[in-house]
Structure formats: structure tokens, C-alpha cells
UniProtKB/TrEMBL annotation:
The keyword Transferase applies. The keyword tRNA-binding does not apply. InterPro entries: 2-IPM_HCS-like, AIPM/Hcit_synth_CS, Aldolase_TIM, PYR_CT. It comes from Helicosporidium sp. subsp. Simulium jonesii. SUPFAM superfamilies: Aldolase (SSF51569). Its EC number is 2.3.3.13. It is an enzyme of class 2 (transferase). Keywords: Amino-acid biosynthesis, Branched-chain amino acid biosynthesis, Transferase. This is 2-isopropylmalate synthase. It comes from the Eukaryota. Belongs to the alpha-IPM synthase/homocitrate synthase family.
Length: 185
């Protein structure tokens, strides 16, 4: 996994430095063929930037966008739709469906996922469908146009903040990048 410095419209805070993995499965029951099955839990209502149950872990999946970053890993719109449906069946909370500004095909795939998967409610649950956008008005509008049909729609925006990216890719000063990030919010 590669970490990239940046300012993002989504912030995740986790206390994991020095934490040891918990390998025990607590509160599970044995099911078919001795496999552990997690007890059913009530999913808390989706409220952006807040989880009412401190024991609940919100799952954010980027397979449909970030999964295509590997050389040779491309998905058709049909494959993206099938993956999105399976992610929803698994109970994934947030599905980042793509980067609508990247191509007309990606825009259409994200829009179709928002219209089909993002409007389908099962047991009171519907995943948040989001699109990725750079901190530029045309990107933000294009992403919103793609996801707005979902019951729970969201746009994630980003801008590079490493000195090399700011100087050579964006050709912006630190102050200009900060202003662009605030405007995007």
C-alpha cells in the first residue's frame, strides 16, 4: 500500500499505532460446518462524520476506483455493477464507485451504480455511493451529477499537498492549495 500526502474531504481517525491485532473472535456462534458466524447487530443510522455506536466499524470500499490503479486491472461497467451489488449484499457502508471526471465510461458506470445499487434498500439499509473528485469545480459538479441519484450520495474530493506535487504538477503555492481545498469543501 502506498501512502500519499493530501488534503481530503473525508477524514478517518483511528487509534492503531502500536496496537496489537486481536485474533480472537468474540461473541460468535458456530454455524454450518463449524464456521463462526457473527451475531446479527443493528446497523446504526448513517450520519456523516458520526457513528452513534462506538463499537461499530464503518466499512468504506474503494475497489471500484482504487482497484483499477494496478497495471492491467481494468473493469467493465458491467463488472463494476456486479461488484457494487455484491458489496451492498455484504453490507459495505460506503462504496466509492469511481472517478466520474476521468472518462465518459466511468461517469456512466458511477451513475448506473448510484441509480441501481444506491436506491435499492434491503432491511432498511442502502449503501452510501460516492464519487471521487479533484478540488476543481468541474470535477465536483461531474461527480455530483453521477452520484446524486443515490439515496445516500457523497462526493470525496482531494488535492495533492506534497511539495513536489504542488510545485511541478499543480504549479501552486502551499497557500493556493489550501485555498483550493477550502473552496472545494
Amino acid at each position: 500500500m502506498q501512502c500519499v500526502q493530501g488534503i481530503s474531504g473525508t477524514r478517518v481517525r483511528a487509534s492503531c499505532v502500536g496496537a496489537r491485532p486481536n485474533r480472537q473472535v468474540r461473541g460468535c456462534q458456530r454455524g454450518v460446518a463449524g464456521r463462526a458466524e457473527a451475531p446479527s447487530r443493528q446497523r446504526p443510522d448513517y450520519v456523516p462524520h458520526h457513528i452513534s455506536d462506538p463499537n461499530y466499524v464503518r466499512i468504506f470500499d474503494t475497489t471500484l476506483r482504487d482497484g483499477e490503479q494496478s497495471p492491467g486491472a481494468t473493469l467493465t461497467s458491467k463488472e463494476k455493477m456486479e461488484i457494487a451489488k455484491q458489496l451492498a449484499k455484504l453490507g459495505v457502508d460506503i462504496i466509492e464507485a469511481g472517478f466520474p471526471m476521468s472518462s465518459p465510461d466511468d461517469f456512466q458506470a458511477v451513475k448506473s451504480i448510484a441509480q441501481e445499487v444506491g436506491t435499492h434498500v434491503v432491511d432498511g439499509y442502502s449503501p452510501v455511493i460516492c464519487g471521487l473528485a479533484r478540488c476543481r469545480e468541474p470535477d465536483l459538479e461531474r461527480s455530483w451529477d453521477a452520484v446524486r441519484h443515490a439515496r445516500l450520495a457523497r462526493v470525496h474530493y482531494f488535492i495533492a499537498t506534497s511539495p513536489i506535487h504542488m510545485e511541478y504538477k499543480l504549479r501552486m503555492s502551499k497557500e493556493q492549495v489550501l485555498r483550493a481545498a477550502v473552496r472545494g469543501a
